[in-house]
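Bumping with the actual sequence this time:
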Amino acid sequence: MQPVPANDRLTKTVLLAAPRGFCAGVDRAIQIVERTLEKYGAPVFVRHEIVHNTHVVSRLENMGAVFVEELDECPDDRPVVFSAHGVPKSVPAAAQAREMHFLDATCPLVSKVHVEAEKHQRDGRHILLIGHAGHPEVIGTMGQLPEGAMTLIEDENDAANYQATDVDNLALVTQTTLSVDDTKGIIKVLQGRFPTIALPYKEDICYATTNRQAAVKEIAEKCDLFMVIGSQTSSNSKRLVEVAVKAGAGGAMLISGAETLDWALIEGANTIGLSAGASAPEYLTDGVIAALRSRYDVELTEVRVTDENIKFHLPRELRA
């Protein structure tokens, strides 16, 4: 792509949302794969994409990671890492039965939801899980308990039509990467129907999802076009696009990086919002800004709604 001569350049205002990009759980999961490769050599097998970002996965593949969907695709004699989204209990049980060396990269905030669900079941409650069918995190969470112990609620219609067998013994947990506003609507319906439903002690939607959505809301109304960097498989990235539209952006789209910029849409936008999902590395944001600067005079302003300083420990065997 040839830069546009300076004399012919238009000016574009770019509002850069912050926080954006990697969260602590994603950073931890990627480090687990990297350090496992350093310690044990290639190949290291990873059950499911470690995080939902094609650029991250490709880089780790180049380092020697092999991504598979099921444990039976892994040999017994090589380390295997479970993805950040969590896995059903049957997966580590099968790995133990085969005497495999496995490391669990499940985000600690997802693990918190697992613990909550198990406690509710021990207390005799049926659990309602707000989430998206087929998402690995939902599969992993539902797989913590016996079949039938949990019911998936995807939207307000599901919430309105759910038939409880014991209305006084219900509990609620949620997927960690949902739209904060949409989830509030579903919870409101459930609470209206089941006033005694046990809610999470602390919000299940993770801090990173909440912060990134808040940053998008802060600037979306000022934007003719809002771009979110993330992969099509990334739930939290897709939610950011939805949040931008609902918050008043003239238009919003998901892009994987500079290579998928829609220049026709950008040409017609004076003010552009930019954010990145929690599994998108910062160099992708830098690449998009550099591509915009190759064609336009860019007036860049970062709009920060909060600072993040959360870090999660690596498994003991990988700590320096």
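The tokens above came from a reply further down the thread. The chain has a mean pLDDT of 96.
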